Each structure stands twice: as C-alpha cells, then as structure tokens.
Amino acid sequence: MPSEKTHLVLVDGSGFLFRAFHALPPMSSPDGVPVNAVFGFTNMLMRLLRDHVGTHLAVIFDAGRKTFRTDMYPQYKAHRPEPPEDMRPQFALVRRATEAFNIPAIELPGWEADDLLASYAKAVVAAGGRCTIVSSDKDLMQLVRPGVELLEPMKQKVIREAEVEAKFGVTPDRVVDVQALMGDSTDNVPGVPGIGPKGAAQLVQEYGSLEAILAAAEGMKPSKRRQSLIDHADAARMSLRLVTLDEDVELPRPIDELNCCEPVNEDLRDWLETMGFHSIIQRMGLGPAARPRMPMRAVQAAQDAGSDSAQAHTPSDVAYGPYETVTDMDALDRWISQAYEAGIMAVDTETTGLNARLADMVGLSLSTAPGKACYVPFLHEGTLDQPTGHQLDRTEVLERLAPLMRDQSVLKIFQNAKYDLLVFHKAGLSEVAPIDDTMLISYAQSAGEHGQGMDELSALHLGHTPISYDAVTGTGRNRIPFAQVTLESATAYAAEDADVTLRLWQVLKPALRTRQALALYEEMERPLVDVLTGMEEVGIKVDATELRRMSKDFETRMAEIEKDIHEQVGRSFNVGSPKQLGEILFDEMGLPGGKRTKTGAWGTDSSVLESLAEQGHDLPQKILSWRQLAKLKSTYADALVQQMDPATQRVHTSFQMAITTTGRLSSNEPNLQNIPIRTEEGARIRKAFVAAEGHVLVSADYSQIELRLLAHVAKIEPLLEAFRLGQDIHARTASEVFGVLIEGMDALTRRRAKAINFGIIYGISAFGLSRQLQISPGEARSYIDAYFARYPGIRDYMERTKEEAKEHGYVTTPFGRRCYVPGIREKNGARRAYAERQAINAPLQGGAADIIKRAMVRLARALPEQKLNARMLLQVHDELLFEVEEKDAAALAAFVRKEMEGAASLDVALEVETGIGASWAEAH
For the domain 7-161+246-258, what is the CATH code? Predict the structure, then answer.
C-alpha cells in the first residue's frame, strides 16, 4: 500500500504524444509507419527511467473524446480537428512503447487523462506519499500543492507553487478561478469575454474566488468588465466546472500495482528494432540494430525538384567520413551520376577569402547522402614536403557540372547559398537551380533563438562538432591560406561541410511545416537569395571625388572641434581615447554620473556623454560631435573609396540575410543601414551615391509602415481612421491625446505626439521620452498615460505581446515569422525590461521587414516584363533604390509604388513615397 516512502511518477501520455508529433520532423519505421511522436515519447521514457526514478510509475492516456464534460457542454473541444493522418497509427504505438518498457498504461472511458492524474495525485498524497506529474499542460498546475509537483519534460523544469504563481498570478488552488474567467479557446471553454489572464488574476487576487467575484459584480464601478461579468455569470460558472479536474475518480489500477519494474531487455530491444530506433538502442546499451530512415515526405526538395527518387536517413546514425578526394574526371562523373540518382546534392565551395565577389574558388565539395561526400580541389599549392599531385582544372569541372547544376530534377542544397552562388557566378557558372539554403531554413523558424552558422546548427541539431577552419589553417601568425592546406586535411574539412549541410537539411526542412514557417521560407527567404545576389553583383556607383572632398571637410571640422576641446580642457590629449577622456571628465572636471567599467576605466560611451550633455555640459556635446564626424569619415567618406571597384566605380555591399531577430536585412562592406537619416551629414553621404551616365536613381520608401502595422495589429480605430482619411497621423494623435484642434496646431505639440507615436513602437519609457523631448520624467509620464488612456488598445497589445513572449519565448509577425526574444524570462529587471521592449517592437519591425521582402520578390519577378532598363540596387530598412534610364524614371516610379503598395493587405493601405534624382540624396 502507498506510504510516506511512495513517490508516484505519472506521465501525461496523451499530452506528450501531441507535443512530440508537432515538435519532431516526420520519421518512419523500416516498414513505413509514421513514428516521429513514438520516437520522442520513447526518448522521454528512457530519460525518465534514468533521471527521475520514483518508487511507482504509470503513463496516463485519454480513452477518447467523449467524457462527462462533453455531456455537460457539447461544445467542449468540439472545434478541434481530427488528428493528422500520420498521427493516428501512433496512438496504439505509444501504448505499445509503455508495454515494451514494462510500464503500466492507464486510461478510463468517460474521463480525461487529467482527471486520472488528479485522482492518483490526491490518493498518493492522502496516503502520505508524493507525486510528480510529467507534463507541459498548464491546466494541471491547479494540482500543485505540498507533495505534488509538475515536471516539464522538454526543459526538465520542476514546477511548484512559486512557478504556478508566477505563471497565473495566483496560488495553485485559485488557478481554476482564473481559467474560468479567461476561458480557453483551445478547449472551447467560454469564460467571460474581455477578461484576459492579467485581468482575471487581478480579480481573483482582490475577491478571492469566482463566486465572490460574481457576487461583487453588481457593486463594481460601471465598466465593460463589470457588465460582462453580470451578463456571462452562467458561462463563467460553467467554465469553472469544465476546467476543474475531478480528483475522486475511481482508480482503474491501485497504486501498489504501479511499482517500478526493470524492462525486459530482450523484449525492449526487439520492439526498438521493429521501430528502427537504432540511436536509442545504442544509448541504452542494448546492442546493434537496424537503422531508422526519414521518408521523403520529410524531404521536401524531392517534391520541389519534381523527383520522387530522393532518399534520406536519420542524420545522426551514419559516420562522418572518411571522404573521397576527386582528382580525375571519371570519379567526378561517378559523383554526378549519384546526384542524379539521389535527386539531391549538398554543395559547398572553398575560396581564397570571405568577399564572395573577389574570392577565387580553391575547390568544391559535394554530398549525396549522410556520410557520403567528396572534395574536388582546383588550386591547392602544396609544399616541397607534401606536393598536392594531380588536380582537376576548374573550368573543365564547372563545364561538366553545369548541366547538373541547372537540372530542375536535382535539388542543390547550400549553407548560406548567396555566398556560394556569387562564387560560382564569378567562376563562370551562372545558373544554379533549384536551391535550398539550410541557413535560411533554420532562420525562417528560429530568428533570434540561436545563431545560424553551420557549426552551431550542427551542434544543436546533429550533436556533432565539425572540424573547425582554425584546425586546418592554424591561427594568428601561423595561419596559412586554405590553398596551402594539404589535400587530406582539406578533404576532411570541406567534404564534412557538405555532409553536415545535407544532414541539417534533412532535419530542418521538414520542421518548416511543423513550425508553420514553410510559406515564409518558400515565398520570401528562398526567392530573395537570387534577388540579393543580383543586387550585390550590380552594386551602386559612387562619386570618388565627392567622397574625398567630404573626407577633407570632415577632417577640417574635426580639427576645429578638437582645438576647441583642447582649449576648454586647458591641454592637449587624444580625443579618441576613452581612457583619457574619462579621466578628464570625471577625475579632473568632477562631472557627476560617472561609472567605471570592469577594467576600472571610466565609461564614456554615447549614452554617458548624451546624459552629461543634457545636463548642460558643453564638453561632452563637443565630443559627441567629434565622434560622429570621425565615424562618418572612417566608415563612409574614406572606406567607400577603398571599397569601390576600380573597373566599375561601384561599391558592392553584402546583404546579411540571417543576422537580425526580426527578419530585417543588414549589410556590411559597406554598412549602408547606419547612414544618418535626418542629419545634414547623412544627406551629404547619400549625395556621393550617384546614377550611371544617362540614368537616374529612383527611391521608393514605405511611409510610416510600423505605425500602420501597429494600427493593424492592435486594431486602434482612431489610428485606422486617420490613415484611411489620409490625415497627418502625428497631428491626429496630438489632437486625440492633448485635446487640441488639428487646425492651427503648433509644431512643438505635433513633435511631441510624433515622439510618442514612434517611441511607443519601441516601448519607450517615461525617462527615455523625457530625454528625447527635454522635459521632466513626470511630464513625460503624463503624456504616456494620456496616450494610453486615449488608445487603450495599444496598451492591451503591448501587454498581450509581452505575455506571448514570456509564454513561448518568441513573438510572431502578422506574416507568421517567429521572432525569439532572449532575456524575456530574465530575473534581472533591467535586462527583462529591455527584452520586453524588444518583444513589443519585433512584430512591427519584423512585419515591416516581411512586407519589403515580399515587395522585393514581387518586383524582381515583374520588373523584366515592364521592358524598362532598370535595376534594383539597394534595400535599406523601408526603402528600395533603383537605377533606371532617365526617360523611364517616371514610369518606373509609378510601377514600383504600385507593386510595393500591393505587397500586403492590411486594415490600412500601405503608402509608398517615391523620388527621382541624379544622386541618392536627391531621390531620397
């Protein structure tokens, strides 16, 4: 019988099955039965037996959809779709998995698994024992109490009273009251309309229980919430009965029959072999077995490429290497034949540098299956001690590969495809299609969650650490060019890269469906590779003479400011030295607010200097001016001349596709995203970007796109109306918030409303707004409070978005992009507040990024049909820049405006402003 020594571990089998099915890529057993959820479930059981052994153990399942709750309320869970076709055969298999592990599997017709979990937990605690429930279901948090805890199986996180209170804002015994008020759309629990998690928790905290809240409703202040509580009292009581778990179900099997037993190894091994779970057999030390395989329903490219011959295997169960060095054409032909047969081929290039436009291809690697890869060297130099021997001619190899590279029946897979395509184009191979890009496949579903480099993805998804570049080339002064690496080392390194890329694709591509990112990748990220490749190859013309003139002028102005600074300090010092500056500001001048860094030096970054400048100190403002000119001089005026291609007089920025959390593109060499927008110096830099002779530049810029997205996602009717009527949105906001007429409004009032409008998007604080408007924090707070009072929907959106981020770890743009928010659960208040501001802004900035990407893809497809001699050159935030013959400029501007405004359908129309000029400054 149960006693104080009893520790009952209960597994929410049905809940875990659904989560495993949607979290793991499709897999099949050797006889073709879908088993991805079974694989995840089996892994969980193995880990549970190893790490969380109680004295008693059982897995609890739902017996069916019909329960006492559906008798009470027929709409309960009625809207849930039927299980996916691939999931249905796995219901029986997970029950078979528990039997194979010699673990009791329990279910009871008419009752949900949650009721059985509740009843077993109550029974074991009543007998003096304790219970751990393995589940991710928040509905089970009502069961937490002394002796009962939850174990979140994915994160291995234990949930006790403190975690429940952090989640719901109330103690576990009041969770059902909160759930009854807020309802649950997943289960069709009605709740009380208009009351969300935060409001429900506040009511329960104030009144104590649902019945107390309903009894007090009549006496509450008149409000929508009060009326909703009165009107929907019966629905709330019904919801309470639906969400409250029954703890008195007659137990199908007594607790003393659930004592743990060791699995019978032979039976378990036989079952694992039947399923093809080779990796589990190995981890459990049960001996060799057959390999599982991943079907090509998971291998999306076979469908993309029009071929059904592609075959994939579980990536982790095949050895990495040895690989082949290809040094004769017969061997190359053999690999080409294998690629045709497989229907897929991972490709990677090795080059002389990181700039794809300038680098030479030293060799290339191919992979057609896990563990099956080769390296084809071209330009390895060798040494006297280790000559390379025969290598193939690059031109001949590319000519032989060309038909394969353009064959639509064979998918070419890259990690960072844009780089390799630029390398191929430079080497003379202009057509490579169709392609997939593992970096972008991962980025489409995990922006901000982790880095997208191959090594990091390999460690994360394959549990494998690839050979590093440093390991084959050395580091520091001892580093050698890749062309001098021995063929043996080069092959081990380069071929492994192709092998890892193929394996990553097998894991990541199917996950696009389960993480709802397939459309995002197929419609935006993948087609954008070719668009950006073309833009980088075209580049944009710069006026070197103007840049040199600008550099000289910046230098003169810096010298003048530096002279003033030295005179004010009373001696010369290095203005560019943070250490010397800190000593002058805080040691010698004694200015307030100084803070030392970890090195012991005074901090003198821009935020420190700006704060001092706002306090009226002149020297910090001069330092800021000097620094801005120095940055513009080095980053643009000087650097652009150095980065210009002498043959074309153009610079060719490199667009980074998988760096930002929000989906925005970034650029480097040169970085064109950080040119000041509203300053005289920024306009002057843009003046140096010019059109070719006989051409002009056309700029097309989305107008107030993030504010439009805010109005759209938060459903703010006054903002929606203002955009629909074409009103000045900042004047309208000032009128709404400050109660002044739009007609005759002074510029200062409008400027304050503009600062709030844009500040809200970035989660601005009262302190931040006060600094921006140079007013007191109290006055700034009153502005923000007035803004939210007039637009309560915006505050609701902000709170809802923060809760979404805390719940899932990410927020979602209107187009389905997940933007992960690191730090959203930080205990440190400042870091958490920063993450919350990121969460508020990410759906808006990310939505804007999605829209302009959609526009770029649309334009790239439609522009050739217009018979205009025009090319897309740059994308900077919400702006696109084109070069076109002067006679076609007006037609291009009209066409681009139409296509960009049609890139997405929102509750308000998108608006694009265009400009035409000989330079970017004139067009912008």
Answer: 3.40.50.1010
Tens digit of each residue's pLDDT (9 = 90 or more) over 367-385: 999 999 999 999 998 665 6
| Angle at which helices 233-243 and 224-231 cross, to 10° | 70
φ/ψ of 150, rounded to 5, equals: -105, 150
Over residues 681-704, the pLDDT tens digits come to 888 899 999 999 999 999 999 999
Q: From residue 114, how far is each of 13, 60, 247, 377 by CA, in Å?
A: 10, 8, 9, 61
Q: Residue 72 is which amino acid?
A: M
Q: Which helix (H) or strand (E) holds 725?
A: helix 717-725
CB 666 within 8 A of CB 656: yes
Higher pLDDT residue, 410 or 389?
Answer: 410
Residue 820: strand, helix, or coil: strand
Amino acid at 61: F
Pairing of strands 324-325, 540-542: unpaired
For residue 9, give the H/E element and its range: strand 7-12
Q: How far apart are CA 784 and CA 764, in angstroms?
A: 9
| 100 vs 366, residue with greater confidence | 366
Residues whose CB falls within 8 Å of the CB of residue 498, separated by 6 or more in sequence, listed in order: 346, 347, 348, 365, 366, 367, 373
- Output the CA–CA distances (angstroms, integers) from residue 48 to 18, 52, 94, 463, in the order listed: 18, 5, 15, 21
Rounded (5°) CA angle 919-922-924: 105
Closest alpha carbon to 664 in 535, 817, 816, 533? 817
- Spatial neighbors of 294 by CB under 8 A, at least 6 apart, are 25, 26, 27, 28, 312, 313, 314, 315, 506, 510
> How many other C-beta atoms are found inside a 10 Å radius of the C-beta of residue 1?
8
Token pair for 344? 């897929």
CA pair distance 689, 673, nearest whole angstrom: 14
* Domain spans in the chain, listed from the N-terminal domain onward: 7-161+246-258, 300-538
SS3 content of the chain, % helix, strand, coil (to 5): 55, 15, 35
The CA dihedral of 305, 308, 310, 314, to the nearest 10 degrees, is: 120
279: its two tokens: 């990796």
| pTM for the whole structure | 0.67
CATH topology of domain 300-538: Nucleotidyltransferase; domain 5 (3.30.420)
